[in-house]
Amino acid sequence: MRFDILTLFPNIIESYINESIIKRAINNKLIEVNIVNIRNYTLLKNGQVDDTPYGGGAGMVLMCEPVVRAIESVKKEDTKVYLLSPQGKVFNDKIAEELINECKHIVLVCGHYEGFDERIKNFVDGEISIGDFVLTGGELPALVILDTVSRFIPGVIANDSFNNDSFKNNLLDYPVYTKPREFRGLSVPEVLLSGNHKKIKEYRESEQIRVTKEKRPDLLK
């Protein structure tokens, strides 16, 4: 799968994709990440990409020309383009799976300043938000979506890890433990030390239900 991330701050994206699982996925050619600097598509000599809002008000607004030209530079027939905006549909695991099934090329457009010129929305397929809060730019949401969607691609992470992730079957993940067996009076549950795989499986399934009831009962509804 290919991701094109359109941004005013390419170094933020570059630093993240050069680490850990995402870097390995890129090296193994499981995903492709292309960073597009929106400033490269302005027609103004000073590199300007924003201007004051019509009607007055605080902040600066990203102009149509550079953003739309940047989108058109990477868009193909099977491409889906999304603005990253607090007004968008709230992102979750289900949407991540839908994105995988919809296409093999996703363009994520990172906003900044006061927002996008409203007319830009005529050139995209939708808006995505990562929560009911406002960030200084769309780079963090773009990385959240890139990371989450990539986990659904076979080979990016181990199948066992993927199948036991939180939100599978609307349940949170079960608690996990490692050495030492005891730490300051806190012990690892005996069933995990028993070697009885059937009992361990039953224990973990019951723990998923317990943890979900305690922390996210809304998922069980």
Quick structural overview:
This protein is α/β, with parallel strands linked by helices and 221 residues long. It is 35% helix and 20% strand.
Description:
The chain is an alpha/beta fold and 221 residues long. It is 35% helix and 20% strand. The protein has helices at 10-17, 20-27, 64-74, 93-102, 139-150, 159-163, 197-215, 217-220; strands at residues 2-7, 32-37, 50-51, 61-62, 79-90, 105-110, 115-116, 126-129, 182-183, 186-187. The model has no long low-confidence stretch (mean pLDDT 93).
Helix content: 25-40%
Radius of gyration: 22 Å
Low-confidence spans: pLDDT under 50, at least 5 residues? none
Q: How many strand units?
A: 10
Largest sheet: 5 strands, parallel
Based on helices, strands and strand pairing, what is the structural class? alpha/beta
What's the total helix number?
A: 8
Distance between the termini: 33 Å
**General form:** elongated
What amount of the residues lies in strands?
15-25%
Order of strands, main sheet, comes to 2-1-6-5-8
> What string gives the helices and strands in order?
EHHEEEHEHEEEHHEEHH
Provide the residue-averaged pLDDT.
Answer: 93
